Description:
single chain; Rossmann fold; Immunoglobulin-like; 6-stranded mixed sheet; alpha+beta
Amino acid sequence: MSLLLAALASASVLRHAVIVGANVGGSGLEPLRYAETDAQRFADLLVELGGFDPVYVTVLYAPSESELRAALHAHEETAGNFDDDLFLFYYSGHADARGLRIGADIYDFEALRSDIRGMQSEVKLGVLDACRSGTITRLKGAQLSQPFMVDDRLAAEGEAWITAASADETAQESDTLRGSFFTHYLISGLRGAADRDDGAVTLHEAYDYAYARVVDHTGGTNAGAQHPNYDYRINGTGALALTRVDKGRANVTLPADLAGQVTVIRLPDRTPVAEVAKEGGAPVTLALAPGHYKVRVMAGKELREAEVMLADGARVPVSQLAPISAESAKGKGAVYFDVAEFQRFAKEHQSTWDKVVNPRDLRHSPLVAGGISGLIPGGGQMFNGQWGKGALYLASTFLLFGGSVGIPDDAFFTGSITGPDPLALGAAALYGASIADATWNANRLEERRPRGGGTLSTYAGWDPTVGGTSPYIAGLSGEWLVHPNVGIGVDRLGWTRSDESEARWNFASRVSFGVNWEKFRPALAVSAGGRILDEGAPGGEITTAEGAGDAQASREAQNRLVGVVGAGLELRWYVTPRYFIEAGFRTELEDASPRFIGGGGIGLHLGE
């Protein structure tokens, strides 16, 4: 699924691409986890090593068929404005024997090839990482023409397709690799693992490397071996260079005498970014983005590793590999914060800052997009080109807020930090969702939502028998996921005042048992704790000692601690991998009296 085409020689040759990732393939198909992430990785690689100008790289996440056709048409017009150009189409997602499955739409393979062939581009490349994607190569058969060399001008005309699987095979994802097998090994090859000592990775080298690694590593899976496929119909001389390792912002070199299975792991998220079956006798150089990495080498039963910090422009040879045990290699979440590594941490922090702010391309800056939604709900989505979604956020947020303001309530600001009524809570949740969604979609920083770690959230719940202008109970909750499906923590810790004469303090612990889907987590929650009920002070002026004593006795009677146990259902909707909106309904026994509470809140997921 990831093909990087970089005919990297002359700036006079336009290199442009449409990159598509779609996790959802319509009814009857289980959502993918990594298709959209792989699309982003591929787009980043095109810009980093392939000579693609980011202005001419269009990345689409779960588009409709009409949106995809519009993007291809725009690139067709772009191709007509240049004498020489090379166009790349990349798709990661579901497919069947008919075509690409994008949500409820199907983009027929014949139509896709026809639309791409209609471009005036001298060279057109297609990379499909999807089940049964080999159908598109079988349409014409597979034929390998003489490769060509990209020099000052494109010395070839033609078309090439590479697919992740044959016409009757399933393309597979890996939780260990945090991506598809095909994309992972194709990217590894393009970063230098497939290079044959000249600093350039050609189309043929990249395909050969990915084919061998995918067949080898899928042979033991439940779905069986997966066989990438190709259809080359390109005429010319020489070899088409897809990437050049020396064009990378930073690189690491594995020494000639090193042999074994080499895995490069990005820290701190521990995502595998490259893999090399290294043989002794010649060095291998890998192009990587600046950052903090762990290089791990398995030779026989011996496992060794080294850490490297790559600044912009760094060229680092890997040396001083330290032996480690297989058990210690399984550990996660190590943090390196001693004084001697301050410079390393500073550089890593700078890399993260660049990713969040994206100062070189403010048009795709998460900070700018999120900031606009902070000023106007939905504005960040419009900035990202998601006009329909932005309009929906804007209208919904202001409708809920306007409805909340219109509720007659003398004590409008009483209640909780999530709002005095369900409408205000909904407005706050959508406002936060707009900011989180705009930030994430400007430059997706997360691969998938965490399954472990912990959560912090607010909650406000209403008792319909009491009224809706103020929550009956509200507070902060914290949960540690001891298992992806089991969480323990504190529940709705806080204070709520309905009016001047009634308030409640709440404290409780909770256990939840949930099911993790891609964007939703339904769960059964059980809680137990206590509640301090303050039902108001006596009225009137106290003028005698006897009256003061009666008042004190009355106040003590009104401030009482009661036990509370409850059970119910809750549902979290992950707007982004970190931000979620929560709704919940539970039945409680408060001082042995039944009470039904319904409400919701907003939260943040921390950890991995």
